[in-house]
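Worked example 3 (structure in, sequence out).
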């Protein structure tokens, strides 16, 4: 009899599984293979994932090791102003005074009236400067020879009558221009001031016209002279102008030598003494005394001094003293107080220039590579300008900026570096801060 066809999965008569129609293996073989393939794919994916992580980590490590570091937080560039305490000059209790410095236009200190006032025999410095402007004396020379006449003797007698200061003169006397200037300036001889005006310009009036133009050309607008000697109270000036005039005297090789001469002997004139009793004391090298009832006792002075290693020439004027003894005692005191007002603004060290701060916690103060100083007077403002550049790492000696000090007509620049090393933070910090390394 016939049997129904076997169903898939049925067993043959001998007990073996029947083949799956159209298949290549048994049902159990197919399931196992699929499972095996899935396991292989999972293992392969895991291997590639691990390999990818390893490769990515290696790449990140390599990149982190060579990537540029972020710049340290630099000290802010900018400027500031420093001032020392103002000097308190020891001005006399009387009159007016001013002191300046050769090479600097502005006065250092000033006290009392700034208005034009009688200047007595200090006028003779203007007479000398104007005469040399018209009749210059070459370096190493003494100028032309001047022959004095009876007219000059008459001028001497006129000065006697006015009770003015004088020096002897005789008809036929022959002096060089430099000698005649010496006769005028050392003993403050009024008669030689008038005689020189006549010799140099033909008349006192012509001299005064020339002098007026000369004063205007030099910007001495507070000064007017109405006579060559200063006996006339119409000859006036300001303390500021007088300091400028004193500087012009020092700039003249002829006059700076004359006013620094204690005494000398001139033909027919005899020995003449410098009326400035402070000459040679406290560095004083001139310049001119003066006295009238209207001006009081006056002194235009100059001093060559050394302060903190700096050679200085100070020029000053004091007017309105009650007597010469007061001048001789007070001018050195004023001069010393002005000298004490000079000081140096120190450059160098690590204070005040700022600090470099790295993002990984290292800090280093900025410091100037060289020390130094800016020499100033009193509370003269000094501008300090700091300019810094970006830096990631730096070692002492590396230039990371500049500091410039400017004041009193001077400018000094120093390179800035760091006080200690700002080092690389290392691979660990680099890898732990990708947001800082790669942004």
């Amino acid at each position: 009899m016939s049997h129904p066809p076997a169903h898939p999965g049925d067993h043959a008569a001998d007990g073996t599984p029947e083949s799956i129609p159209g298949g290549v293996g048994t049902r159990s073989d197919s399931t196992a293979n699929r499972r095996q393939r899935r396991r292989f794919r999972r293992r392969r994916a895991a291997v590639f994932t691990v390999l990818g992580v390893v490769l990515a980590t290696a790449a990140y490590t390599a990149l982190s090791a060579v990537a540029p570091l972020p710049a340290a937080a630099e000290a802010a560039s900018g400027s500031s102003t420093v001032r020392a305490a103002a000097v308190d000059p020891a001005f006399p209790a009387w009159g007016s005074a001013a002191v300046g410095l050769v090479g600097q236009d502005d006065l250092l200190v000033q006290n009392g009236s700034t208005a034009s006032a009688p200047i007595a025999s200090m006028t003779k410095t203007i007479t000398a400067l104007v005469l040399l402007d018209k009749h210059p004396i070459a370096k190493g020379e003494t100028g032309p020879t001047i022959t004095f006449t009876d007219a000059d003797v008459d001028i001497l007698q006129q000065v006697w009558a006015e009770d003015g200061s004088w020096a002897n003169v005789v008809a036929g006397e022959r002096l060089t221009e430099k000698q005649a200037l010496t006769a005028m300036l050392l003993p403050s001889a009024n008669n030689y001031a008038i005689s020189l005006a006549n010799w140099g310009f033909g008349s006192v009036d012509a001299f005064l016209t020339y002098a007026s133009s000369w004063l205007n050309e030099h910007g001495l607008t507070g000064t007017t002279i109405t006579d060559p000697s200063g006996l006339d109270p119409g000859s006036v000036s300001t303390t500021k102008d007088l300091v400028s005039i004193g500087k012009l005297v020092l700039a003249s090789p002829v006059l700076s030598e004359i006013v620094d001469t204690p005494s000398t002997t001139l033909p027919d004139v005899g020995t003449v003494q410098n009326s400035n009793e402070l000459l040679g004391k406290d560095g004083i090298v001139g310049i001119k005394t003066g006295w009238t009832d209207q001006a009081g006792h006056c002194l235009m002075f100059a001093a060559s001094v050394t302060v903190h290693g700096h050679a200085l020439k100070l020029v000053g004027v004091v007017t309105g003293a009650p007597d010469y003894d007061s001048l001789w005692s007070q001018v050195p005191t004023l001069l010393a107080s002005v000298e004490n007002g000079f000081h140096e603004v120190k450059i160098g060290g690590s204070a005040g220039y700022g600090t470099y701060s790295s993002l990984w916690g290292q800090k280093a103060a900025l410091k100037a590579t060289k020390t130094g100083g800016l020499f100033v007077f009193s509370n003269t403002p000094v501008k300090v300008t700091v300019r810094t550049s970006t830096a990631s790492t730096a070692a002492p000696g590396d230039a990371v900026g500049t500091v410039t000090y400017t004041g009193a007509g001077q400018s000094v620049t120093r390179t800035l570096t760091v006080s200690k090393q700002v080092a690389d933070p290392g691979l660990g910090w680099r890898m732990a801060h990708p947001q800082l390394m790669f942004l």
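Notes: Confidence is low (pLDDT under 50) at residues 1-25. The CA atoms of residues 125 and 249 lie 7 Å apart.
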